Amino acid sequence: MSSDVPVGGDAENGDPADSDPSNPDAAASGFDATEYDPDFDPENPESCEGDAAKSDDFAASASACAYTDYSPGGKNPDDLPATGEGAEGVEARIWDALYDVEDPEMPVSVVDLGLIYGAEVDSDGRADVEMTLTYTGCPARDMLTDEIEAAVAGVEGVESANLRLVWTPEWSIEMVTETGKDDLREFGLSV
User: Where in the chain is the domain with CATH 3.30.300.130?
Assistant: First the structure.
């Protein structure tokens, strides 16, 4: 929003930010909630949460991300990091492709960062990769998952690639391989 009104409002020109005596912060903030939410009631600040929040159905209407597994359980953290050690044939090529995918924020493979929890391929060439991220709000989520799916789909012998994003067990620095820790140190991080 751009405005020629100085911060704190301009009551002389009709800006209510300075004119609400019940709001001691209004003059300092210059924020007028009614400009953003016409249903805002200054006597009831919760009114700005929207109609869904006011209804009893709000919790029932919330839904989790459709392609993310939030279920409890998952891999045993003692079995991680998964590195593809011992993989053969198409599965070994899948792991090689995964090692070529680097985290977009630092030059470390997603395998060495401990983000890959498993990779398997069946006899029909359907590859399944299970992975996590360093945290649920990772801004590179879509870019990274798309790159991993594309890398696996491009492996000779893979007919289709399925990526399953999981949060259990949650990622921790202990999941980083020794090579990954060396790469992180070389990048300038203390691990």
Answer: 77-187
User: Quick check: 142 pLDDT over 60?
Assistant: yes
101-135 residue pLDDT tens: 999 988 999 999 999 999 999 999 999 999 999 98
Q: Which fold has domain 77-187?
A: GMP Synthetase; Chain A, domain 3 (3.30.300)
- 66-107 pLDDT per residue, tens: 555 556 666 777 788 899 999 999 999 999 999 999 999 889
3-state secondary structure string across the chain = CCCCCCCCCCHHHCCCCCCCCCCCCHHHHCCCHHHHCCCCECCEHHHHHCHHHHCCCHHHHCCCCCCEECCCCCCCHHHCCCCCCCCCHHHHHHHHHHHCCECCCCCCECCCCCCEEEEEECCCCEEEEEECCCCCCCCCHHHHHHHHHHHHHCCCCCCEEEEEEECCCCCCHHHCCHHHHHHHHHHCCCC
Amino acid at position 133, single letter: L
